[in-house]
Design goal:
alpha+beta, Arc Repressor Mutant, subunit A, 2 domains, TF_LuxR_autoind-bd_dom_sf, Tscrpt_reg_LuxR_C, DNA-binding, DNA binding
Protein backbone atom coordinates (compact mmCIF):
# COMPACT_ATOMS: atom_id res chain seq x y z
CA UNK A 1 0.00 0.00 0.00
CA UNK A 2 1.49 3.34 -1.10
CA UNK A 3 1.72 6.38 1.21
CA UNK A 4 -1.27 8.11 -0.40
CA UNK A 5 -3.40 4.98 -0.13
CA UNK A 6 -2.32 4.43 3.49
CA UNK A 7 -3.26 8.00 4.38
CA UNK A 8 -6.69 7.55 2.76
CA UNK A 9 -7.22 4.21 4.52
CA UNK A 10 -6.31 5.51 7.98
CA UNK A 11 -8.55 8.56 7.46
CA UNK A 12 -11.30 6.07 6.78
CA UNK A 13 -10.81 4.62 10.27
CA UNK A 14 -11.58 7.97 11.87
CA UNK A 15 -14.70 8.35 9.72
CA UNK A 16 -15.78 4.78 10.51
CA UNK A 17 -15.48 5.16 14.27
CA UNK A 18 -17.46 8.43 14.13
CA UNK A 19 -20.50 6.58 12.75
CA UNK A 20 -23.27 5.43 15.13
CA UNK A 21 -22.58 1.94 16.48
CA UNK A 22 -24.69 -0.88 15.09
CA UNK A 23 -25.76 -1.33 11.48
CA UNK A 24 -24.46 2.08 10.33
CA UNK A 25 -20.97 1.33 11.60
CA UNK A 26 -21.05 -2.24 10.28
CA UNK A 27 -21.98 -0.91 6.85
CA UNK A 28 -19.17 1.62 7.16
CA UNK A 29 -16.82 -1.22 8.11
CA UNK A 30 -17.73 -3.17 4.98
CA UNK A 31 -17.09 -0.09 2.81
CA UNK A 32 -13.79 0.57 4.58
CA UNK A 33 -12.63 -3.01 4.04
CA UNK A 34 -13.47 -2.68 0.34
CA UNK A 35 -10.73 -0.07 0.14
CA UNK A 36 -8.29 -2.92 0.71
CA UNK A 37 -9.68 -5.35 -1.83
CA UNK A 38 -12.78 -6.33 -3.76
CA UNK A 39 -15.49 -8.16 -1.79
CA UNK A 40 -18.81 -9.26 -3.31
CA UNK A 41 -20.79 -9.90 -0.12
CA UNK A 42 -20.39 -9.48 3.62
CA UNK A 43 -22.25 -11.34 6.35
CA UNK A 44 -21.75 -11.26 10.11
CA UNK A 45 -23.02 -14.36 11.90
CA UNK A 46 -23.01 -14.64 15.68
CA UNK A 47 -22.76 -18.18 17.06
CA UNK A 48 -24.01 -18.19 20.62
CA UNK A 49 -24.43 -21.33 22.69
CA UNK A 50 -27.50 -23.30 21.70
CA UNK A 51 -29.05 -20.51 19.66
CA UNK A 52 -29.33 -20.65 15.91
CA UNK A 53 -26.78 -18.51 14.07
CA UNK A 54 -27.85 -14.87 14.14
CA UNK A 55 -27.21 -12.80 11.01
CA UNK A 56 -26.33 -9.51 12.70
CA UNK A 57 -25.45 -7.81 9.41
CA UNK A 58 -25.26 -8.63 5.70
CA UNK A 59 -25.09 -6.96 2.31
CA UNK A 60 -27.14 -9.52 0.35
CA UNK A 61 -29.98 -8.63 -1.98
CA UNK A 62 -33.26 -10.28 -0.96
CA UNK A 63 -33.04 -13.19 -3.41
CA UNK A 64 -29.51 -14.16 -2.33
CA UNK A 65 -30.31 -13.67 1.35
CA UNK A 66 -32.71 -16.62 1.20
CA UNK A 67 -29.88 -19.00 0.29
CA UNK A 68 -27.07 -17.38 2.29
CA UNK A 69 -29.06 -16.75 5.48
CA UNK A 70 -32.58 -18.22 5.63
CA UNK A 71 -31.77 -21.65 4.18
CA UNK A 72 -28.46 -21.76 6.06
CA UNK A 73 -30.17 -21.20 9.42
CA UNK A 74 -32.52 -24.15 8.88
CA UNK A 75 -29.66 -26.57 9.46
CA UNK A 76 -26.83 -26.57 6.87
CA UNK A 77 -24.83 -24.38 9.25
CA UNK A 78 -24.17 -27.56 11.23
CA UNK A 79 -21.97 -28.68 8.33
CA UNK A 80 -20.22 -25.31 7.85
CA UNK A 81 -16.45 -25.42 8.55
CA UNK A 82 -16.57 -21.89 10.02
CA UNK A 83 -19.34 -22.87 12.45
CA UNK A 84 -17.49 -26.04 13.43
CA UNK A 85 -14.31 -24.01 14.02
CA UNK A 86 -16.29 -21.83 16.44
CA UNK A 87 -17.45 -24.90 18.36
CA UNK A 88 -13.75 -25.75 18.79
CA UNK A 89 -13.14 -22.23 20.17
CA UNK A 90 -11.00 -21.09 17.24
CA UNK A 91 -8.84 -18.10 18.27
CA UNK A 92 -9.62 -14.63 16.88
CA UNK A 93 -8.01 -13.75 13.56
CA UNK A 94 -8.47 -13.83 9.81
CA UNK A 95 -9.08 -17.33 8.48
CA UNK A 96 -9.79 -18.90 5.10
CA UNK A 97 -12.60 -21.40 4.76
CA UNK A 98 -10.23 -23.89 3.16
CA UNK A 99 -8.11 -23.94 6.34
CA UNK A 100 -10.94 -25.71 8.18
CA UNK A 101 -12.57 -27.68 5.36
CA UNK A 102 -12.27 -31.50 5.51
CA UNK A 103 -10.33 -33.27 2.79
CA UNK A 104 -13.40 -33.92 0.58
CA UNK A 105 -15.29 -30.72 1.40
CA UNK A 106 -15.11 -29.38 -2.17
CA UNK A 107 -16.20 -32.78 -3.53
CA UNK A 108 -18.81 -33.45 -0.87
CA UNK A 109 -22.55 -33.07 -1.14
CA UNK A 110 -22.75 -30.09 1.23
CA UNK A 111 -20.51 -28.14 -1.13
CA UNK A 112 -21.96 -29.43 -4.41
CA UNK A 113 -25.62 -29.22 -3.44
CA UNK A 114 -25.66 -26.27 -1.05
CA UNK A 115 -22.53 -24.16 -0.87
CA UNK A 116 -22.03 -24.16 -4.63
CA UNK A 117 -25.58 -22.83 -5.08
CA UNK A 118 -24.45 -19.62 -3.42
CA UNK A 119 -22.15 -18.92 -6.36
CA UNK A 120 -19.16 -18.35 -4.10
CA UNK A 121 -15.61 -19.06 -5.14
CA UNK A 122 -13.89 -18.21 -1.87
CA UNK A 123 -14.64 -17.02 1.64
CA UNK A 124 -12.39 -15.57 4.32
CA UNK A 125 -13.59 -14.45 7.72
CA UNK A 126 -12.61 -12.45 10.76
CA UNK A 127 -13.26 -14.43 13.96
CA UNK A 128 -14.10 -12.20 16.94
CA UNK A 129 -14.55 -13.24 20.57
CA UNK A 130 -17.77 -11.81 22.05
CA UNK A 131 -19.25 -11.64 25.55
CA UNK A 132 -20.30 -14.84 27.35
CA UNK A 133 -18.47 -17.15 24.98
CA UNK A 134 -20.26 -16.11 21.78
CA UNK A 135 -18.30 -15.90 18.52
CA UNK A 136 -18.68 -13.37 15.74
CA UNK A 137 -17.69 -14.43 12.22
CA UNK A 138 -17.53 -11.64 9.63
CA UNK A 139 -17.30 -13.36 6.25
CA UNK A 140 -15.89 -11.66 3.17
CA UNK A 141 -17.23 -13.52 0.17
CA UNK A 142 -16.13 -13.57 -3.45
CA UNK A 143 -18.23 -14.98 -6.27
CA UNK A 144 -17.00 -17.35 -8.96
CA UNK A 145 -16.52 -14.31 -11.23
CA UNK A 146 -13.85 -12.92 -8.88
CA UNK A 147 -10.28 -14.18 -8.31
CA UNK A 148 -9.22 -15.79 -5.07
CA UNK A 149 -7.70 -13.58 -2.36
CA UNK A 150 -4.02 -12.91 -2.93
CA UNK A 151 -1.37 -13.11 -0.24
CA UNK A 152 -0.96 -9.33 -0.28
CA UNK A 153 -4.71 -8.80 0.16
CA UNK A 154 -4.84 -11.20 3.08
CA UNK A 155 -1.88 -9.49 4.75
CA UNK A 156 -3.60 -6.10 4.47
CA UNK A 157 -6.91 -7.50 5.71
CA UNK A 158 -5.12 -9.04 8.66
CA UNK A 159 -4.01 -5.53 9.68
CA UNK A 160 -7.68 -4.59 10.07
CA UNK A 161 -8.39 -7.17 12.79
CA UNK A 162 -8.35 -4.74 15.72
CA UNK A 163 -10.77 -2.34 14.03
CA UNK A 164 -13.06 -5.20 13.02
CA UNK A 165 -13.09 -6.50 16.58
CA UNK A 166 -14.07 -3.13 18.05
CA UNK A 167 -16.91 -2.56 15.57
CA UNK A 168 -18.30 -6.09 15.85
CA UNK A 169 -18.10 -6.19 19.64
CA UNK A 170 -19.91 -2.85 19.96
CA UNK A 171 -22.61 -3.92 17.50
CA UNK A 172 -23.18 -7.15 19.40
CA UNK A 173 -23.39 -5.38 22.75
CA UNK A 174 -25.90 -2.91 21.33
CA UNK A 175 -28.00 -5.74 19.95
CA UNK A 176 -27.96 -7.52 23.30
CA UNK A 177 -28.99 -4.36 25.14
CA UNK A 178 -31.80 -3.49 22.75
CA UNK A 179 -33.08 -6.94 21.81
CA UNK A 180 -31.99 -9.73 24.17
CA UNK A 181 -32.32 -13.21 22.78
CA UNK A 182 -34.78 -15.57 24.50
CA UNK A 183 -33.20 -17.91 27.03
CA UNK A 184 -34.61 -21.08 25.47
CA UNK A 185 -32.50 -23.19 23.15
CA UNK A 186 -33.81 -21.95 19.83
CA UNK A 187 -32.04 -24.59 17.77
CA UNK A 188 -32.42 -27.45 20.22
CA UNK A 189 -34.68 -29.34 17.79
CA UNK A 190 -32.23 -28.90 14.91
CA UNK A 191 -29.24 -30.01 16.97
CA UNK A 192 -31.20 -32.99 18.28
CA UNK A 193 -32.22 -33.91 14.74
CA UNK A 194 -28.57 -33.84 13.67
CA UNK A 195 -27.31 -35.81 16.65
CA UNK A 196 -30.12 -38.35 16.38
CA UNK A 197 -30.18 -38.59 12.59
CA UNK A 198 -30.72 -42.24 11.69
CA UNK A 199 -30.98 -43.33 15.34
CA UNK A 200 -34.09 -45.38 14.54
CA UNK A 201 -32.03 -47.77 12.39
CA UNK A 202 -28.30 -47.04 12.74
CA UNK A 203 -25.84 -48.03 15.42
CA UNK A 204 -24.00 -45.35 17.42
CA UNK A 205 -20.84 -45.94 15.33
CA UNK A 206 -22.80 -45.63 12.09
CA UNK A 207 -24.28 -42.34 13.31
CA UNK A 208 -20.75 -41.01 13.98
CA UNK A 209 -19.74 -41.96 10.43
CA UNK A 210 -22.83 -40.31 8.93
CA UNK A 211 -22.07 -37.03 10.70
CA UNK A 212 -18.50 -37.01 9.40
CA UNK A 213 -19.60 -37.88 5.85
CA UNK A 214 -22.16 -35.09 5.86
CA UNK A 215 -19.44 -32.63 6.90
CA UNK A 216 -17.30 -33.55 3.89
CA UNK A 217 -14.88 -36.17 5.18
CA UNK A 218 -13.69 -38.92 2.84
CA UNK A 219 -13.67 -42.55 3.92
CA UNK A 220 -9.93 -42.23 4.63
CA UNK A 221 -10.51 -39.14 6.76
CA UNK A 222 -13.37 -40.81 8.64
CA UNK A 223 -11.10 -43.75 9.32
CA UNK A 224 -8.42 -41.43 10.69
CA UNK A 225 -10.91 -39.51 12.85
CA UNK A 226 -12.36 -42.67 14.38
CA UNK A 227 -9.12 -44.73 14.45
CA UNK A 228 -10.53 -47.52 12.31
CA UNK A 229 -9.48 -48.88 8.92
CA UNK A 230 -10.77 -47.42 5.62
CA UNK A 231 -12.09 -50.85 4.75
CA UNK A 232 -14.21 -50.85 7.90
CA UNK A 233 -15.58 -47.43 6.96
CA UNK A 234 -16.58 -48.72 3.51
CA UNK A 235 -18.45 -51.63 5.10
CA UNK A 236 -20.21 -49.23 7.45
CA UNK A 237 -21.16 -46.96 4.53
CA UNK A 238 -22.67 -49.88 2.64
CA UNK A 239 -24.68 -50.91 5.70
CA UNK A 240 -25.77 -47.29 6.36
CA UNK A 241 -27.09 -46.85 2.84
CA UNK A 242 -28.92 -50.16 3.00
CA UNK A 243 -30.54 -49.38 6.35
CA UNK A 244 -31.63 -45.90 5.23
CA UNK A 245 -32.87 -47.12 1.86
CA UNK A 246 -30.55 -44.87 -0.16
CA UNK A 247 -27.86 -45.43 -2.74
CA UNK A 248 -25.49 -42.46 -2.54
CA UNK A 249 -24.10 -39.70 -0.38
CA UNK A 250 -26.24 -37.20 -2.33
CA UNK A 251 -29.34 -39.06 -1.16
CA UNK A 252 -27.92 -39.09 2.36
CA UNK A 253 -27.72 -35.30 2.37
CA UNK A 254 -31.22 -34.99 0.92
CA UNK A 255 -32.62 -37.24 3.64
CA UNK A 256 -30.76 -35.28 6.31
CA UNK A 257 -32.10 -31.93 5.07
CA UNK A 258 -35.67 -33.26 4.94
CA UNK A 259 -35.40 -34.35 8.57
CA UNK A 260 -34.01 -30.93 9.55
CA UNK A 261 -36.84 -29.20 7.69
CA UNK A 262 -39.34 -31.21 9.68
CA UNK A 263 -37.60 -30.11 12.88
CA UNK A 264 -37.62 -26.39 12.08
CA UNK A 265 -39.05 -24.21 14.80
CA UNK A 266 -42.64 -23.23 14.12
CA UNK A 267 -42.85 -19.86 12.46
CA UNK A 268 -39.55 -20.22 10.62
CA UNK A 269 -39.37 -20.87 6.90
CA UNK A 270 -38.13 -24.45 6.50
CA UNK A 271 -36.10 -25.57 3.55
CA UNK A 272 -38.27 -27.36 0.98
CA UNK A 273 -37.95 -31.13 1.15
CA UNK A 274 -35.06 -32.30 -0.99
CA UNK A 275 -34.09 -28.76 -1.99
CA UNK A 276 -30.39 -29.49 -1.58
CA UNK A 277 -30.38 -32.90 -3.19
CA UNK A 278 -31.69 -31.99 -6.63
Amino acid sequence: MRHKELKHWTAGVAHLLALPSGRARLLGLSQWLKQICHVDHFVLFVYEGNHRPLALFDTFPADKRKVYVDDYQVGPYLLDPFYLACTRNQPPGLWRLRQFAPDHFYLGEYYLNYYQLTGLAEEVAFFVDLADGAKGVLSLMRSTASPTYSRDELQLLDCAQQVVEEVVQEAWQQRRDQQPRPAQDLDHQIRAAFEQFGAHSLTAREQEIVQLLLRGHSSASVAEQLAISPGTVKIHRKNIYAKLGIGSQAELLGLFIRELSGSAVEGESPLPAGALSQ
